[in-house]
Amino acid sequence: MKRVEGKVAIVTGGASGVGREDALLLAREGAKVVITDVNDAAGQVLAAEIGDGAMFLHHDIAVEADWERVVAATVQRFGRLDVLVNNAAILQVGSIETTTLEMWQKVQRVNSEGYFLGCKHAVLQMKRNGGGSIVNMSSLAGLAGMSAFCAYSASKGAVTAMTRSIAAYCKASGYNIRCNSIHPDGIKTPMTAALAGQFDPATVNTGGDPMARMCESVDVANVVLFLASDESRFINGAEIRVDNGYLMSGD
To answer: With b meaning 16 or more CB within 10 Å and e meaning fewer, what string describes 16-44?
Structure first.
């Protein structure tokens, strides 16, 4: 259908997991895609797989100079920036009692500060284009209490609140820039695979189980594609849960 034909998108953390699926789907639907990650080898392989409509850039999202370089390179190569998918993140296990200050600061640096910098530099560029769409990957942990993920929950809560602030600011400024957040519960990715042993095996099921809490990367990528496209032109500041009703049911 070419739902994002002619758009240019940056996908952070695009070398693997959800980011990889985002990049593949956006490219299949007509977008030019800039894949950024700290995993150079996997990122370069993916860009080569997509072809001329993609490029890979090494990118530490917590470094402002990296954001300035990535946005400038995107515009130089493809002429504009229409979509930012803030996807890169880190996850560390730790309750309020076991989380150290070092762990806390490490998670906030990437998950909160990195997203702030991405949004800031995307807005600065997108307003020159006459608009755009920012998709922030938050989490159910940013909406509900998850005792084992203190720092991660806080970082995703910050992303959620920041998303609303950006949406309100861009609307009031007449920028035609939308900003929305996505809140998965569990996703079957390399990042969560390391923690799978801590989950109830019955909940790690992406088949036909109606009680399943783990989804596939494509389930999230489909929402990213919708928010990146003009089909979602009237959706701004929204928090979209991809959790099979878990938060609602409380089970």
So the answer is: bbbbbbbbbbbbbbebbbbbbbeeeebbb
The third-level CATH classification (topology) of the domain covering 8-249 is Rossmann fold (3.40.50)
Q: Which of 152, 169, 175, 246 is catalytic?
A: 152
The whole-number average pLDDT for the span 207-212 is 64
Question: Is this structure's pTM higher than 0.90?
Answer: yes
Does the annotation mark 169 as catalytic? no
- What are the tokens at 207? 């088949």
94 secondary structure, DSSP code: B
Helix-helix angle 114-129:150-173, to 10 degrees:
20
pLDDT tens by residue, 217-228: 899 999 999 999
Phi, psi (degrees; rounded to nearest 5) at 175? -85, -15
